[in-house]
Structure of ASCH domain-containing protein:
Amino acid sequence: MTAAPAPDPDLPNLPNLPDLPNLPDLDALPRAEFAFPGPPRDRLVAAVLDGSKTSTTGLVADYEHDGDPLPRPGHREVVVDSSGRPVAVIEVTQVRVVPLAEVDLAHAVDEGEGHTSVAEWRADHERFWHGEEMRAALGDPGFTVDDATPAVLERFRVVTVLPGTGD
């Protein structure tokens, strides 16, 4: 077992969550893991919890590599923080599969990461997708994306913030 990464001092502290043994239905739900554990995930989880993140982008290649079906409206997932603790349940409200060149500004802004242009969003996401962790997760050290790469654009809503998460 690996230790959780140290919290980012520039982010608000996410609360310590209690163990949730009385919520067995959470175990039946798939996990929503935004980015990789550490400061990027902490920022994204905080954005989900404060309502500024209502969309996310995945790659068809990632779903195929993991053998996972693409999300569909009504699909629910448990959002987990960097330590793997559940913090919220989200429900997919819309899914589109488009080439990266067709990602629109509304989707980029609704990712809640502060992007004000699609070009800025794209550059940030390419750094992530071309990063060592993503390439290792895909088992392809030379993985790259281009305008034609199929992207999974999801919109979601928070169904519930789990106990111990809110103020």
Q: What stands out?
A: The chain is about 30% helix and 25% strand.
